[in-house]
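Field reference: "sequence" (input) and "structure" (output). Example, DUF433 domain-containing protein:
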Amino acid sequence: MTNATKLQNLPAYTVADAARYLRIPSGTLQAWLHGRTYNTKDGQQFSAPLIQRPSTEFSQLSFINLVEAHVLRVIRQDHNIRLDKVRTALDYIEREFATPHPLASIDFQTDGVNLFVESVGRLINASENGQLAMRQTLNQLLKRIEYDRQVAIRLFPNLRPNQSDSPKLLVFDPTVSFGRLAIADTGIPTSIVAERYRAGDSIDLLAEDYGCTRLQIEEAIRYELPPQIA
């Protein structure tokens, strides 16, 4: 295992931070991590976790888990596919690609999307139009992930879910700033920018100090501070 691979799999993000950065309700993310019991006409059923954390000894998520949650957010929230159906489809993809984290693999970006959508489509009887829309959404989403040696190495989160082609201004990179969210190509953590803004520094001053554009600074602040503040 290379040093980069180790960093990608280190427990590094709390559930609260991951949920905030990816715009996922904490309860939803917890269900993906621990599984969920739900009622059916045949009684209670249990849907297994969708995300396997690097260690049961730690509650934190790894960078790879962050990427998985990034993809799952669209699958679950935008297309409203039931948790058990997603789990069944992921089990199929894991067998096909022989990997425990298929959503963070480049194989998913190439062949896996079609296999996943077709599998889910059969499980939920999705129309051809529904499957096409899901495939298009996932393909746009996966453009915000960079890969090396088949595995995700950078994630560019999107603050504007309805604008999948928005600029890649911020990045999660496990080899930079201990994996903290940072302004792309600078290594400057967004948390530091937000702290200075909260303390009274103007956006123009921050842009000048860090050699960034106003747009980069504004995006960093939006991610870190509540809407009423940012």
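The first strand starts at residue 36 and ends at 40.
Strands lie at 36-40, 43-47, 145-148, 151-155, 170-171, 182-183, 188-189.
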